[in-house]
């Protein structure tokens, strides 16, 4: 039987007297598109921040490839192969698309700054290889026309693609998508859904997606976990989750359950 890539074992996260996550557990299998949904303030982004070790839960454990990652620095988590996008775009606005994507290659670069400055031999070969990988991502996300433009000049939907591309440039083993279609119109949402499915099928990268767009989640996710006030209230396939009375109550009110 295939082992989970990520195991979140009953984690609890508190901020003073406020419990943001209360004994939440789940796992993510290789190749899976796992989605986390819930009302505002349910604890979805806090889950991401615990996986990235920006926050450290007071209870429970998180294992990646069978090893606990609790207590590791966020940059260590990135080196292990967990990359993420952000709900609010976190790009370098005056840098070009190519240069923004190259920042995602930083953790994979081995040459010293001095070798990079001289730009000969192994350092030159390494940079050329990194640029080739970036161009592959540009082709995958269909942003060739914008590659030399500062990202500040790009339409919002394309900026979201660049942020996705930067996360892909890190060569992740697990990709965390924090509201990838937030603020997008219908056409941009459909494009992003297509790219997410391409990443799943062509690159075989497992993903955890936090998203408010229920149509998107129910169309493309393999499994869905529902949070409400920091607690897990449902976990299953999209069809199972949509039929769960606790989920209906959390979204629509108890009179609809």
- Strands ordered across the widest β-sheet: 6-7-8-3-9-10
Number of strands: 10
Task: Tell me what the CATH architecture of the largest domain is.
Answer: 3-Layer(aba) Sandwich
The count of domains is 2
Main β-sheet description: 6 strands, mixed
Helix/strand order: EEEHEEHEHHHHEHEHEEHH
CATH topology of the largest domain: Rossmann fold
CATH structural class of the largest domain: Alpha Beta
Q: What proportion strand? A: 15-25%
Distance between the termini: 36 Å
Low-confidence stretches: none
Name given to the CATH homologous superfamily of the largest domain? P-loop containing nucleotide triphosphate hydrolases
Query: What would the principal axes of the Cα set say about the shape?
Result: globular
User: Fraction of residues in helices?
Assistant: 25-40%
Number of helices, where a helix is a run of at least 4 consecutive DSSP H or I residues: 10
Give the integer mean of the pLDDT values.
89
Based on CA atoms alone, the radius of gyration comes out at 19 Å
Structural class: alpha/beta
Question: Could you please describe the fold and organization of this structure?
Answer:
With 257 residues, the protein is an alpha/beta fold. It has 2 domains: 1-81 and 172-257, P-loop containing nucleotide triphosphate hydrolases (Rossmann fold, 3-Layer(aba) Sandwich); 92-170, no CATH class. It has 10 helices and 10 strands. It has a 6-stranded mixed beta sheet, with helices on both faces. It has a 4-stranded antiparallel beta sheet with strand order 2-1-4-5, covered by helices on one side. Helix 7 (186-203) links the parallel strand 7 (174-178) and strand 8. Helix 3 (97-103) runs parallel beside helix 6. The longest helix has 20 residues, at 121-140. The model has no long low-confidence stretch (mean pLDDT 89).
């Amino acid at each position: 039987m295939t082992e989970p890539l990520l195991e979140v074992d009953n984690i609890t996260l508190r901020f003073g007297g406020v419990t943001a996550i209360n004994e939440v557990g789940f796992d993510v299998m290789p190749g899976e598109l796992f989605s986390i949904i819930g009302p505002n303030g349910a604890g979805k982004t806090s889950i991401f921040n615990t996986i990235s070790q920006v926050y450290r839960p007071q209870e429970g454990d998180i294992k990646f490839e069978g090893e606990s990652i609790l207590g590791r620095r966020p940059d260590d988590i990135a080196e292990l192969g967990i990359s993420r996008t952000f709900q609010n775009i976190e790009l370098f606005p005056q840098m070009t698309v190519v240069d923004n994507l190259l920042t995602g290659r930083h953790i994979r670069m081995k040459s010293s700054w001095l070798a990079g400055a001289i730009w000969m031999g192994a350092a030159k070969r390494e940079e050329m290889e990194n640029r080739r990988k970036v161009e592959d991502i540009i082709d995958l996300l269909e942003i060739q026309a914008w590659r030399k433009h500062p990202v500040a000049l790009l339409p919002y939907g394309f900026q979201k693609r660049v942020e996705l591309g930067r996360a892909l440039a890190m060569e992740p083993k697990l990709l965390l998508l924090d509201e990838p279609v937030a603020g997008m119109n219908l056409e941009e949402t459909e494009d992003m859904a297509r790219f997410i499915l391409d990443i799943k099928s062509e690159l075989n990268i497992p993903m955890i997606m936090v998203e408010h767009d229920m149509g998107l989640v129910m169309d493309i996710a393999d499994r869905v976990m529902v949070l409400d006030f920091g607690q897990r209230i449902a976990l299953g396939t999209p069809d199972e989750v949509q039929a769960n009375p606790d989920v209906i109550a959390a979204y629509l009110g108890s009179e609809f359950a």
